[in-house]
């Protein structure tokens, strides 16, 4: 099936204030990100509603100013004339666009994402019908979705941000970062270099009454909400007793400061005295963040891993998840040989606990961590990367996505890191010694 990708970019950007299509995110215009996300999924990409160097432009039909329906009508007409079977549409102002949209939407008839309905899959056979629908005076995309009985696909897990205002773009910049990765198959065919959007992970130091209380790793958005909820859940103060948090960006992370009532001081001081993860005095958030990002020892172990070994280990993992099969609520950490056989595995409701258990089991059994790789049924976070490095493993593979800080720390230490490992492919985020064959 030949598919046409269509970027809908005819809006006026009134709420944004300037041309949002050219607004930069991660060093490139939003239009560039749209084209980069669509290109691997379709046979050709066109731009609807405007002109821009590097993309073929098509004018809205039958006239400008008809919103998404005019742009979609233009794309379907182009597809019919040029022999495409379907059109995959994306608006210029919704990001980060996954490179799995076609697979998510493909199926019988039309389909749209449930909350971002401008992202849709439209058979070219609908072109004549849409033209007639517009001729009746219809302008609503929802009316067209209802008329075609389009399937609505759940998109709550995609984390899409609709960029209507500059604040939305600032939120996206703080929350998401593109990193280069290599998508490879296990059959050793050449891989494809792509950009992957990962959630930003950064240290967030929390200070109460000028005293460092905790350093948390998280996505630095909605920090006032985060610290308010943290304060309440820790039992330190009520909402009425908490001052509006002050948020300060520093070189390595963020500091959030708030004032609490006098009655909270003993608990704050007790926590400050018993912290063991911070080398600073606990009064300065910058010291706390520096301690949280202390230098990692370099990875010295080396292994060479046939890609097929990853598929083999994934195929065995479920057999080692007794608690997971029974409850569906635990994570597994497995130590695998270079042939892909699982040597030891441990489970826990917490992914960090599962990895700690595995590290301890290997030590008690006298098995060298340098001789294989770790496979985790979890996302790749900064803490898991650091535990893997400090335990002496040369490689970490996770079945879910990484955070930005996880990739940064893996690269800093020289840890081979692969993520989103599936039965047929995985993404290599870092491979300093060509360990993956």
Automatic annotation (TrEMBL):
Residues 5-142 form the MobA-like NTP transferase domain. Gene3D superfamilies: 3.10.20.10, Cytidine Deaminase, domain 2, Spore Coat Polysaccharide Biosynthesis Protein SpsA, Chain A. InterPro entries: Cytidine_deaminase-like, FdhD, MobA-like_NTP_Trfase, Molybde_CF_guanTrfase, Nucleotide-diphossugar_trans. It comes from the Bacteria. It holds the Pfam family FdhD-NarQ. Belongs to the FdhD family. PANTHER family: FORMATE DEHYDROGENASE, SULFUR CARRIER PROTEIN FDHD. This is Sulfur carrier protein FdhD.
